[in-house]
């Protein structure tokens, strides 16, 4: 493989400067930074689409946008947030932290690393450009169900191409992570000594390489159905539109855990650090993560209970879905037990982690309810589902990413962030996110379908509250940008061990972490391998 | 920015008004025994997760308040306990089983569509529903009512708060008998839709080429409203469902009335209307059937739905027949209207389209011409 | 410093795995068909049997078969069953006729897709003759009768007393096979 180079081939005395440093970088820290900045940018692009959605839903009647444009906002918001914000943020953290956590000098495949990042801006430029094409952007929902998605105008081939690019980028990123972890651990860093963040990323990477190619296959079939006369999903030619849903969710459910598992890893690093106590049940955490990952391949049809599956199928998928609650429960209990009898302090990363545990669990509760097939016939495709997955993804995945940024920011920048502002950001985010999403449970139960631009007046009150929460949440995130920039530019000097209770190899290198670290494998002591 | 400011002010003035509306917090119990059982199962699971939440978060908060560094506690060092881990694997498993049992029973019951007395087929169209009473040879098209349609236009300036059953009202509601087992088949004409009336307790996808079945015994007379719940394009939010549940004898009367009405509607080909009459009628038909795509100003949406204003099809004399035929038979994603509109309605809407928005062709299309186009006599 | 060979090996095997999973996406298509046949998912009736002799299998059991017809999209046809429904005895062959008419002033090609509901019944619904899955050409204004010969298997589960056989005609676009 030509992309295989050894990290110590580089010239280590100077880091490249200027544009060259960023465009051609093969340094895991630089690429990690690029990923994180890109993810934050996309978070705001996708977020502004969410603001358009919430503005339109602020009150009944159509005030701002045409329904077709509304649908494309719903569609592109989802694609950007999933593939452009949460996943790249996770990969960025993995890039920065995994080599530091396992004592490796860099990622195993640094040039491929550069390529997997630089594909992303092009893919998203392509995706966003479709909004300005004849017939508008993709507007059939991020799930891209045929036959509706085949009605997309000029945007269609670009949508498929963008998905392919995103898939290739993520697969390359995932392969890089697996190869790094399997081959580049410092001597003594056995698999069961690895920090949990590394574990969750290895498992996530396997989910990525197993599920994304299936999506790629599915969208390729869409493309050939539209332009080359195949009939995979075309009932007229003997195909079946429901088949696409099976293929999509065979990818889609593991995708949910691709977004959630790294969050589990982050929180499992942070809670022990601020409880000053070892992580409870390390081994069971690893096994629970692995079993969630495996189970995720057997529950896909719970997204499709209303398509008319045979009763035996519905029962199977209901039982499998409910079973996921067990390993997920184990994780939550382990985090609680980690806190129990610790000596906790509540800096911003800890606050976000605790909020994650509580709010992700609330998302899990509604998930369990949604898994009960007969009741799902009522919940399906309503705002109850919207509330559910935003609890899991926003107050879940995104909150854990925020926690991770605050936790590792001193290591990245060499400065402590402004703790006071961090706390304000936390409290505002937590309150507004709940004002934004909690009422949506009520809307769904009362009967409001998702993906509609306008609604009956019985849904007016909660929509207005939700929109107010949405605007406030959006504004609050500007504070986050300010805090990060402020921290990058200056502030209290951070020590190598930036947090009193933090454990792990990343805290053994100075803050900010030098451009090259662990050029020679570190000698690991028993104390350094504690979790 | 002025209009936006105006909108925000307008919105804020609505706030106290809307506060008077119902605050519906929970799932509806509905009007069938199944919907009631679903409600019970929903409440059971809701209570279970609430109790788990209170216990788990309670312990966590106790820990957060007591085990903090500022209280001078020394952190413990334990990191695992097999007993505890086994316990908290088994308890959730037991809870899940206790939920799965009633869920299984109910699901099997819901799948039993046998012994139905009436079969109704709901076909999803972009964007309306067609209902076939399969035992009666009766077909009804049911689309968003004209008032909601008008109010829901972008910048209509009309207040949805003052519109009765805004977006939940249709031009032709369907009628079903109470205390009768009704099998409801769902399918679709173009893309996937989903048929959902919350009070009946379920929703089911309507998929082109495939037929799904489900059933309901409505126990209380009343009007039940629902919506399409699978995104199906631009008009997804604008294809509600209205079911009027009445006693059996009333239902039978309604069926007879509808049949007679449709029979009467069939023979419109001899009607001759004035330009004025055609334009008025045409505008009504246009608003109900065409406006969603071609827009109130006939401009369509660039790249998605072609404009009618100034288009060759609606202005050139040579395309007059083509215009009529396209309304009858549809074209591509434009559905066929031949089945649901009478000759005079098609004549009126053609006339309207050829004279509105500055098209001003002066063409008058009469029902007879439509009838002839239908029978290929032209 | 690190084992280059091992890195290469892990990388290549992961790329290989990716390609395999891409293939698996396509393999889901035939797998799904098998799955449908086994479970009757979506009610595709694909069991076509040889025209067996008019074996007379008598039982007391009667099942109602309902004939349903749909026209998809912009196909300018009408489709109607001759009889709306029929009482049949499982184990015997029956015939039903659909009348299809082209309202259009040009010739049009269409293709019918069958579907059976409830989905369990599709496992027990067999046809020896059917007009589905083949292109049908109707001349302008032409009307045709189309025949279905079918049998409901005598092993039909007890809970089923009413089966809907539904046909949907789709327009065959030029270029579609």
Automatic annotation (TrEMBL), chain A:
EC number of this enzyme: 7.1.1.9
Gene Ontology annotations for the cellular component aspect, listed alphabetically: plasma membrane; respiratory chain complex IV
Keyword Iron attached: yes
A Pfam family that the UniProt record links to this protein: COX1
Gene Ontology MF terms in the entry: cytochrome-c oxidase activity; heme binding; metal ion binding
Segments crossing the lipid bilayer: 31-53, 73-94, 115-133, 153-184, 196-223, 243-267, 279-301, 316-337, 349-369, 389-409, 421-442, 462-485
UniProt-annotated location(s): Cell membrane; Membrane
Pathway: Energy metabolism; oxidative phosphorylation
GO biological process: electron transport coupled proton transport; oxidative phosphorylation; respiratory electron transport chain
Coiled coil: none
Keywords, alphabetical: Cell membrane, Copper, Electron transport, Heme, Iron, Membrane, Metal-binding, Respiratory chain, Translocase, Transmembrane, Transmembrane helix, Transport
Keyword Lipoprotein tagged: no
Cytochrome oxidase subunit I profile domain boundaries: 22-525
Membrane topology of the entry: Multi-pass membrane protein
Catalyses which reaction(s): 4 Fe(II)-[cytochrome c] + O2 + 8 H(+)(in) = 4 Fe(III)-[cytochrome c] + 2 H2O + 4 H(+)(out)
Alphabetical list of PROSITE patterns matching this protein: COX1, COX1_CUB
PANTHER family: CYTOCHROME C OXIDASE SUBUNIT 1 (PTHR10422:SF18)
Function description: Cytochrome c oxidase is the component of the respiratory chain that catalyzes the reduction of oxygen to water. Subunits 1-3 form the functional core of the enzyme complex. CO I is the catalytic subunit of the enzyme. Electrons originating in cytochrome c are transferred via the copper A center of subunit 2 and heme A of subunit 1 to the bimetallic center formed by heme A3 and copper B.
Record-stated family: Belongs to the heme-copper respiratory oxidase family.
Annotated protein name in UniProt: Cytochrome c oxidase subunit 1
From TrEMBL, chain B:
Top-level taxon: Bacteria
Positions of the Cytochrome oxidase subunit II copper A binding domain: 115-257
An MF annotation (GO) of this entry: cytochrome-c oxidase activity
Limits of the Cytochrome oxidase subunit II transmembrane region profile domain: 19-114
TM segment ranges: 44-65, 86-108
InterPro entries (UniProt xref): CcO_II (IPR045187), CcO_II-like_C (IPR002429), Copper_CuA (IPR001505), Cupredoxin (IPR008972), Cyt_c-like_dom (IPR009056), Cyt_c-like_dom_sf (IPR036909), Cyt_c_oxidase_su2 (IPR014222), Cyt_c_oxidase_su2_TM_dom (IPR011759)
The protein's enzyme class: translocase
Keyword tags: Copper, Electron transport, Heme, Iron, Membrane, Metal-binding, Respiratory chain, Signal, Translocase, Transmembrane, Transmembrane helix, Transport
EC number: 7.1.1.9
Cofactor notes: Binds a copper A center.
Cofactor requirements of the protein: Cu cation
Reactions catalysed, as given in the entry: 4 Fe(II)-[cytochrome c] + O2 + 8 H(+)(in) = 4 Fe(III)-[cytochrome c] + 2 H2O + 4 H(+)(out)
GO cellular component, one term: plasma membrane
Residue span, Cytochrome c domain: 277-357
PROSITE patterns registered for this protein in UniProt: COX2 (PS00078), COX2_CUA (PS50857), COX2_TM (PS50999), CYTC (PS51007)
GO biological process, one term: ATP synthesis coupled electron transport
Topology with respect to the bilayer: Multi-pass membrane protein
Secretion signal, residue range per the UniProt entry: 1-21
One Pfam family per UniProt: Cytochrome_CBB3
Record bears the keyword Oxidoreductase: no
Protein name per UniProt: Cytochrome c oxidase subunit 2
Lineage: Bacteria, Pseudomonadati, Pseudomonadota, Betaproteobacteria, Nitrosomonadales
TrEMBL record, chain C:
GO cellular component annotations of the record: plasma membrane
Database matches in Pfam families: CtaG_Cox11
A GO term, aspect molecular function: copper ion binding
PANTHER family listed in its UniProt record: CYTOCHROME C OXIDASE ASSEMBLY PROTEIN COX11, MITOCHONDRIAL-RELATED (PTHR21320:SF3), CYTOCHROME C OXIDASE ASSEMBLY PROTEIN COX11-RELATED (PTHR21320)
Xref: InterPro entries: CtaG/Cox11_dom_sf, Cyt_c_oxidase_assmbl_CtaG
Bilayer topology annotation: Single-pass type II membrane protein
Domain of life: Bacteria
Main location: membrane
Keyword list, A-Z: Copper, Membrane, Signal-anchor, Transmembrane, Transmembrane helix
Organism expressing this protein natively: Methylophilales bacterium HTCC2181
Name of the protein in question: Cytochrome c oxidase assembly protein CtaG
Family, similarity comment: Belongs to the COX11/CtaG family.
Protein function: Exerts its effect at some terminal stage of cytochrome c oxidase synthesis, probably by being involved in the insertion of the copper B into subunit I.
Localization per Swiss-Prot or TrEMBL: Cell inner membrane
Segments traversing the membrane: 12-32
């Amino acid at each position: 493989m030509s992309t295989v180079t050894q990290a110590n081939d580089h010239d280590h005395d100077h880091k490249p400067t200027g544009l060259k440093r960023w465009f051609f970088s093969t340094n895991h820290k630089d690429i990690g930074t690029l990923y994180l900045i890109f993810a934050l940018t996309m978070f705001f692009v996708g977020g502004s689409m969410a603001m358009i959605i919430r503005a339109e839903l602020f009150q009944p009647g159509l005030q701002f946008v045409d329904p077709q444009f509304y649908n494309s906002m719903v569609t592109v918001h989802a694609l950007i947030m999933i593939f452009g914000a949460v996943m790249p943020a996770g990969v960025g953290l993995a890039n920065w932290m995994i080599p530091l956590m396992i004592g490796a000098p860099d990622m195993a495949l640094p040039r491929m690393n550069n390529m997997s990042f630089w594909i992303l801006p092009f893919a998203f430029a392509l995706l966003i450009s479709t909004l300005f094409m004849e017939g508008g952007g993709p507007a059939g929902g991020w799930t891209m169900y045929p036959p509706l998605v085949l009605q997309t105008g000029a945007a269609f081939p670009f949508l498929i191409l963008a998905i392919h690019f995103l898939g290739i980028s993520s697969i390359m990123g995932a392969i890089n992570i697996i190869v790094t972890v399997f081959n580049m651990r410092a001597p003594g860093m056995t698999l069961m000594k690895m920090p949990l963040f590394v574990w969750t990323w290895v498992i996530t990477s396997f989910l990525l390489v197993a599920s994304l190619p299936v999506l790629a296959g599915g969208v390729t079939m869409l493309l050939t159905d539209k332009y080359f006369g195949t009939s995979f999903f075309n009932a007229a030619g003997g195909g079946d539109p429901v088949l696409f849903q099976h293929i999509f969710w065979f990818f889609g459910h593991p995708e949910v855990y691709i977004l959630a598992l790294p969050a589990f890893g982050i929180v499992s690093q942070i809670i022990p650090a601020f409880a000053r106590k070892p992580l409870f049940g390390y081994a069971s955490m690893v096994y629970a993560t692995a079993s969630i990952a495996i189970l995720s391949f057997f529950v896909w049809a719970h997204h499709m209970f209303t398509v008319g599956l045979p009763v035996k199928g519905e029962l199977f998928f209901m039982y499998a879905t409910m079973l996921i609650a067990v390993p997920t429960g184990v994780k939550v209990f382990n985090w609680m037990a980690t806190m129990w009898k610790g000596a906790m302090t509540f800096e911003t990363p800890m606050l976000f982690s605790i909020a994650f545990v509580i709010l992700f669990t609330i998302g899990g509760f509604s998930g369990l309810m949604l898994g009960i097939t007969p009741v799902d016939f009522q919940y399906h495709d309503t705002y109850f589902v919207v509330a559910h997955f935003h609890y899991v993804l926003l107050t879940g995945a995104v909150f854990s990413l925020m926690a991770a940024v605050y936790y590792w920011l001193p290591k990245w920048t060499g400065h402590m962030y402004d703790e006071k502002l961090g706390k304000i950001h936390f409290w505002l985010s937590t309150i507004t996110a709940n004002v934004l999403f909690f009422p949506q449970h009520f809307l769904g139960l009362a009967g409001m379908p998702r993906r509609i631009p306008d609604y009956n007046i019985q849904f007016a009150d909660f929509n207005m509250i939700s929109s107010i929460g949405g605007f406030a949440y959006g504004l609050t995130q500007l504070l986050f940008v300010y805090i990060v920039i402020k921290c990058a530019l200056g502030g209290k000097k951070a020590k190598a061990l930036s947090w009193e209770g933090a454990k792990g190899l990343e805290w053994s290198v100075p803050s900010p972490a030098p451009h090259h670290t662990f050029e020679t494998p570190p000698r690991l002591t028993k104390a350094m391998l504690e979790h | 920015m002025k209009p936006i400011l105006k909108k925000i002010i307008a919105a804020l003035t609505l706030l106290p008004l809307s506060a008077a509306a119902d605050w519906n917090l929970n799932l509806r119990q509905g009007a069938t025994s199944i919907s009631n059982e679903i409600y019970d199962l929903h409440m059971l699971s809701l209570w279970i997760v609430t109790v788990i939440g209170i216990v788990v978060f309670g312990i966590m908060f106790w820990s957060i308040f007591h085990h903090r560094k500022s209280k001078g506690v020394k952190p413990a060092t334990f990191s695992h306990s097999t007993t505890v881990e086994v316990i908290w694997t088994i308890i959730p498993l037991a809870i899940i089983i206790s939920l799965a049992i009633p869920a299984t029973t109910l699901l099997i019951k819901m799948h039993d569509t046998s012994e139905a007395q009436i079969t109704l087929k709901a076909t999803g169209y972009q964007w309306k529903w067609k209902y076939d009473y399969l035992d009666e040879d009766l077909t009804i098209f049911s689309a968003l009512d004209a008032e909601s349609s008008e109010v829901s236009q972008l910048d209509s300036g009309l207040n949805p708060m003052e519109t009765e059953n805004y977006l939940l009202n249709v031009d032709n509601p369907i009628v079903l008998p109470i205390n009768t087992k009704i099998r409801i088949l769902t399918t679709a004409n173009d893309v996937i839709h989903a048929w959902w009336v919350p009070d009946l307790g379920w929703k089911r996808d309507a998929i082109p080429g495939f037929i799904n079945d489900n059933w309901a015994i409505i126990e209380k007379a009343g009007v039940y409203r629902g919506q399409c719940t699978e995104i199906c394009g631009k008009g997804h939010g604008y294809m509600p469902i209205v079911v009027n549940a009445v006693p059996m004898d009333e239902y039978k009367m309604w069926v007879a009335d509808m049949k007679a009405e449709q029979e009467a509607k069939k023979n419109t080909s001899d009607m001759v209307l004035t330009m004025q009459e055609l334009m008025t009628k045409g505008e009504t038909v246009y608003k109900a059937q065409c406006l969603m795509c071609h827009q109130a100003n006939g401009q369509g949406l660039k790249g998605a739905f072609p404009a009618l204003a100034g288009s060759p099809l609606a202005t050139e004399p040579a395309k007059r027949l083509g215009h009529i035929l396209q309304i009858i038979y549809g074209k591509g994603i434009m559905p066929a209207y031949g089945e649901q509109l009478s000759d005079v309605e098609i004549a009126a809407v053609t006339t309207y389209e050829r004279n509105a928005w500055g098209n001003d062709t002066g063409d008058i299309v009469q029902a007879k011409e439509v009838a002839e186009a239908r029978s290929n006599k032209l | 410093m690190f084992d280059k060979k091992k890195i290469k090996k892990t990388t290549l095997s992961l790329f290989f795995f990716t390609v395999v999973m891409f293939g698996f996406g396509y393999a889901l298509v035939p797998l799904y068909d098998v799955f449908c046949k086994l479970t009757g998912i979506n009610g595709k009736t694909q069991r076509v049997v040889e025209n067996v002799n008019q074996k007379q299998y008598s039982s007391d059991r009667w099942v109602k078969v309902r004939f349903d017809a749909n026209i998809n999209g912009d196909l300018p046809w009408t489709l109607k069953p001759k009889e709306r429904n029929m009482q049949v005895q499982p184990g015997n062959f029956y015939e039903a006729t659909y009348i299809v008419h082209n309202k259009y002033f040009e010739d049009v090609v269409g293709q019918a897709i069958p579907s059976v509901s409830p989905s369990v019944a599709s496992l027990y619904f067999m046809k020896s003759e059917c007009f589905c899955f083949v292109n049908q050409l109707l001349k302008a204004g032409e009307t045709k009768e189309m025949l279905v010969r079918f049998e409901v298997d005598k092993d039909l589960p007890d809970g089923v007393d009413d089966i809907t056989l539904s046909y949907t005609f789709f327009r065959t676009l030029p270029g579609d096979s």
